[in-house]
Amino acid sequence: MTGILRRATTAAGVTSGWVHVLPGRSDGAQGAMAQWTRADGTGEQGTTAGPSLADVLDELSGELPPGSVLVVDSFHSLTMASANSLIVWSHAARLRGVHVLIGFHPALDQAGVAPLLNVPSTTTWIDVRPLREEELRADLAAGLPWAAPGLLDVAVDACAGSSLLLRALRRALAGEESVDANALSRAHASALESGTLRLVADQGPDALTLALLSALVRPVHSARAAAEQLGLPGATAARLEVLLTECGLQPNTRESAGVVHSVLARRAPMDVRRVAAGHAHSLLSATAGKGQLFRLRATVGDSLTGMLPLAEAAYAEAWAEGDPDTAAAVATTMLTRSADPAELAWAKSAAMRCWAGIDWNAFANHVAWLDEPAVAPLVADLDLCDWLRLEAHTVAREVFGISGAGELRQATRLANRALYGYAAEPDVKNLDQAISGQGILSVSAPLASRLALAWFGLADYEAAHRWASVAAFTASESELADCAMGHLVGAQALIRLGHFDQAEQQAQAGAELFAAFGASNLEAFARLSAIHAAVEARRPVTALPDPIANPHPGLALYRTYLAARCDLLAGRPDQAVRQLFECGRALTKCGVVNPSLVNWRPHLASIFRAKGQADFGQHVETDLVAAWREWAAIEPAAAARRSTVLGARAAEVFTDDEQPVSAPTLDMLSPAELRVVDLVVKGMSNRDAAKTLFLSKRTVDTHLGNVYRKLSLCSREDLVELMKVLAPQRGECALSVFG
């Protein structure tokens, strides 16, 4: 409102003045400052300051001619003496034709100066109303990517009708790709700290104590009951209750209440926390649950050593209410506030139990706790999902751990072997046939997800996609991790099969599920898979997402490969070369023999051919053939399925008897036939190709017939598809052998 008035008076050319009061001193005095536009028409400003408001107003009397405007925007901040001085001065100023505009907020009136506003006979009130719920909802819904409709209700409640909170919340959410519960919680806390919390703190310790006490006892007791417990006078209590509501510190949703409590507990001084916690204990002692009593002790900030029984009860209460986040908070609070080794061991085990279900990344970062002698017995019965071990890469030597029994354990072992490139196909095929005989829909999601991964490592992408679909669509509520992995493996298989739109959808579904578990590595891998599908479809990719902290080596490798592919699409082959070589070093370091997982060598060879560096290209191709020979000796059927990656060099790996299909090469064609093929593949008709090459149409027809005969093709469409596979032999950087 002040800004609007300033702009309006400036635009109208009206002489105006502004008074800003300083906080009152302990001796009752209150300084002030003023500025005004000079009446000489120059537009220059004058300023003054004085030890009292009366002195400043006296100087303004000679600077404000009739018709000018004086704005005092914080009447509620005045002491009683300053307010009296202003009222008396304003009477005289009005007689001289000066318009006095006074800003007043009842909830901030500490000195009780409101009655003085009734003294002037010509007072006009402008009441700035709070924003209505529908206005808040429309504003927040516009332009913000809400992950779920229910979050918008929480955001509306957090704003509490305050335009100040609304602006602060929108600023904090700006740039978020998706507004989920965590992003909204962070933005809400930031909005409170940068927006309205300062107003409450400026009202003194009573206001801050009431705010924290009210947060501690809600929803059992109201702010009015909290004020009575503090012994605040009725008028003060009513004023502060209004202020807390306007500042968004009396929320109606559980999510907003949690943010308000954490912000107040963090920002309030220790003496305020102790007073609020003591009064909260008095109010809640008869009705509070163990969780509330534990939070009261934690709010005070003292050591929690010796409080294990209360912590255990609060932890159990949170679990019983289906609130693992609160249970994890109890455990982590004990970790930071207890010095007893036995209590710390309990806190570690309790935290790990929570994280295993809600925050896989936190579990992985603290997985070494499971080896501590005091912790291990407490988590002996912890049933860990194998996919969780992918996050714990700091201690896991293999792709994921081997657990379970019978077929599940066998499938896990075979998936490991297939991915790394060791002999597995006969056993995988036998297991596949055995469990398929039981009925495919009777197979559990954990078993299906492992079979899918095994077939993927063996380059049978049809089988991998089939089992991935079983895992994704038959998983129960307790098997959502296997459901997510089914989506991810399915996406990777679909990329190899050339179904990019479906692959992108599957990858996004997996990413959303992994995000719900807090599995940051797997979520990032799924999101990169969606980008991989776009890259293979030759769609533009603006940039890869920022790397996560402490990534799994496999994730870092995959990101490097996709960065190289994006550089190729953007015409930066030199950068792509460095990153493709890095992929090779990373695979060797991981001990991966399987050359079908990442096509780094074929792309590298294509780059060197395109740049005319035949010696480098030959060296990379020789290395590719050697790697394929090694794998083909271990897994001949899998290598044969993926042999199109080798192009013309496939004959060096497979004998004629071993070749799964004939392998046509461009060496079969003459230069003249190759020129015709190049134009036909680009979509030209025979007649247009003849014009381009200055040949007769009959000659082009003859060349094309010879091409069909030599390559055993039947149609133009077959030729186009084959040339995509053989593109590397022509020195092109793009491959059709996807992945």
TrEMBL record:
PROSITE patterns reported in the protein's UniProt record: HTH_LUXR_2
Keywords, in A-Z order: DNA-binding, Transcription, Transcription regulation
Pfam families linked to this entry: GerE
InterPro entries xrefs: Sig_transdc_resp-reg_C-effctor, Tscrpt_reg_LuxR_C, WH-like_DNA-bd_sf
Locate the transmembrane regions by residue number: none
* UniProt domain HTH luxR-type: residue ranges: 662-727
Per the record, the domain of life is Bacteria
Is Transferase among this UniProt entry's keywords? no
Against PANTHER family, the record matches this protein to:
DNA-BINDING TRANSCRIPTIONAL ACTIVATOR DEVR_DOSR
Q: What name does this protein carry?
A: HTH luxR-type domain-containing protein
